[in-house]
């Protein structure tokens, strides 16, 4: 496929309620969208980086530069581009996985639209609906947390994930466990907020029958996670640390995790995400689909990914109304605790140009130069 143009759009979607994690509070989801056009197709991609380098080192303004100055010129200079070749085409550039993932996703969407295949079918997923979990931010008080969790439970979410940090862990988790009752799937995410000295404290979470604890330690501290795994019975799940199928295989081999959170953006794209899935499935390690407050573009792709056979735990792919009043695609709706997986070609969603224009704060377009 020949790519004739690459367009970037920075959009800002106000959140329904602020989302607080151990690294900060987000009031608005800023997303960098990539749109590519070929002679007979078009495709969309979404970069899952944030406005600031708080979740990881990547952030949208840097992703924008990486795509504008390095990645888009490569795409536009190539005679033919296939999604499977994007990682290779951009391979000499180090890092910037989220930016690369967005570019690959746009090319993949265009390619699949042209061939009439859905992303779900392309990835090898099956089933028409996904039962998602919901990720609940840190609140000012435990009473407020209980209110929020009770609301999500009555919406029909089948699993709750609580964000924790030092000073907001044992008490809120105990209170939510009491509210939800024994057996309701509950897990926690620390976003790297603890240190190697916190093993004895974190082991107290074992009392609450959690599905897992996600990323308690620094993203580079694989050995620390392996040591922590020996101090607590709750399974450790890695998020920030997993950057590729190789890092997943290594972390599993070292005993640093028994569950893996897969985010396509963090590992450089949906093709690598599938490889992470395959490595984990072969190793008997359950996976689930992480979320980055995606717009409808990324949400559509995550729903497709989450239907692969290794995704045996509920993902952070909640309904649109948990995040935004207005999205750039038709909303994804929770019905009887499940969300429909798009089945149309490509990502299976159409971008609403009116909403897109209203939410856009910055644009850039680069076209192939005439031969
Ligand atoms: O998309 O529902 C969502 C958010 C899920 O908690 C979530 N994501 O570390 O897993 C994680 C966080 C990172 C994103 S915070 C902006
Ligand atoms: Mg996480």
> What characteristic shape results from the CA principal axes?
globular
Find the CATH topology of the largest domain. Answer: TIM Barrel
Number of separate structural domains: 2
**Helicity level:** 25-40%
> What summary fits the major beta sheet?
7 strands, parallel
Rg calculated over all Cα atoms: 20 Å
Name every ligand kind in the structure.
N-succinyl methionine, magnesium ion
- Low-confidence spans: none
Overview of this structure, please?
The protein is an alpha/beta fold and 371 residues long. The chain has two domains: 5-116 and 350-367, Enolase-like, domain 1 (2-Layer Sandwich); 121-340, Alpha-Beta Barrel (TIM Barrel), CATH 3.20.20.120. Helices cover 36% and strands 20% of the residues. It is built from 13 helices and 13 strands. The protein has helices spanning 60-77, 83-89, 97-115, 119-123, 142-155, 170-180, 199-203, 222-231, 245-253, 264-267, 270-283, 296-305, 353-359; strands at 5-21, 24-38, 41-47, 129-130, 134-136, 160-163, 186-189, 213-214, 236-238, 259-262, 287-289, 339-340, 360-367. Strands 5-6-7-8-9-10-11 form a seven-stranded parallel β-sheet. Strands 3-2-1-13 form a four-stranded antiparallel β-sheet. Strands 4-12 form a two-stranded antiparallel sheet. Helix 2 runs antiparallel to helix 3 (97-115). The chain starts with a strand and ends with a strand. The protein binds N-succinyl methionine and magnesium ion. Magnesium ion (MG) is lined by residues 189, 191, 214-215, 239, 261, 290.
What structural keywords apply?
371 residues; alpha/beta; Enolase-like, domain 1; TIM Barrel; 2 domains; seven-stranded parallel β-sheet; four-stranded antiparallel β-sheet; 13 helices; globular; binds N-succinyl methionine; binds magnesium ion
């Amino acid at each position: 496929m020949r790519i004739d143009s690459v367009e970037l759009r920075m959009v800002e979607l106000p959140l329904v309620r602020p989302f607080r994690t151990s690294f900060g509070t987000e009031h608005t989801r800023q997303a960098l969208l990539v749109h590519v056009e070929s002679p007979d197709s078009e495709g969309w991609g979404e970069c899952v980086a944030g406005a600031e380098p708080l979740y990881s080192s990547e952030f949208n303004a840097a992703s924008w530069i990486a795509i504008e100055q390095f990645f888009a010129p490569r795409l536009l200079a190539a005679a033919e581009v296939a999604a499977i070749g994007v990682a290779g085409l951009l391979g000499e550039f180090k890092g910037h996985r989220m930016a690369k993932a967005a570019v690959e996703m746009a090319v993949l969407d265009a390619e699949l639209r042209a061939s009439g295949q859905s992303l779900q079918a392309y990835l090898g997923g099956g089933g028409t609906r996904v039962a998602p979990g919901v990720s609940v931010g840190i609140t000012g008080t435990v009473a407020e947390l209980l209110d929020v969790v009770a609301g999500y439970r009555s919406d029909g979410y089948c699993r709750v994930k609580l964000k924790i940090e030092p000073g907001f862990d044992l008490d809120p988790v105990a209170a939510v466990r009491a509210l939800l009752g024994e057996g309701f799937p509950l897990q926690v995410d620390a976003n790297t907020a603890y240190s190697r000295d916190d093993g004895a404290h974190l082991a107290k979470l074992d009392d609450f029958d959690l599905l897992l604890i996600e990323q308690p330690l620094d993203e580079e501290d694989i050995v620390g996670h392996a040591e922590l795994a020996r101090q607590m019975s709750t399974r450790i799940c890695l998020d920030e640390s997993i950057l590729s199928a190789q890092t997943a295989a290594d972390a599993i081999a070292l005993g640093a995790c028994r569950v893996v959170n897969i985010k396509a953006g963090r590992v450089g794209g949906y093709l690598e995400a599938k490889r992470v899935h395959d490595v984990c499935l072969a190793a008997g390690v359950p996976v689930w689909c992480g979320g980055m407050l995606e717009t409808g573009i990324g949400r559509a792709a995550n729903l497709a990914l989450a239907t692969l056979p290794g995704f045996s735990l509920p993902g952070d792919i909640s309904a649109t109304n948990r995040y935004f009043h207005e999205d750039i695609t038709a909303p994804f709706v929770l019905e009887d605790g499940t969300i429909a997986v798009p089945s149309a070609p490509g990502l299976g969603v159409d971008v609403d140009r009116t909403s897109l224009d209203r939410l856009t704060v910055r644009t850039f377009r680069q076209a192939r130069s005439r031969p």
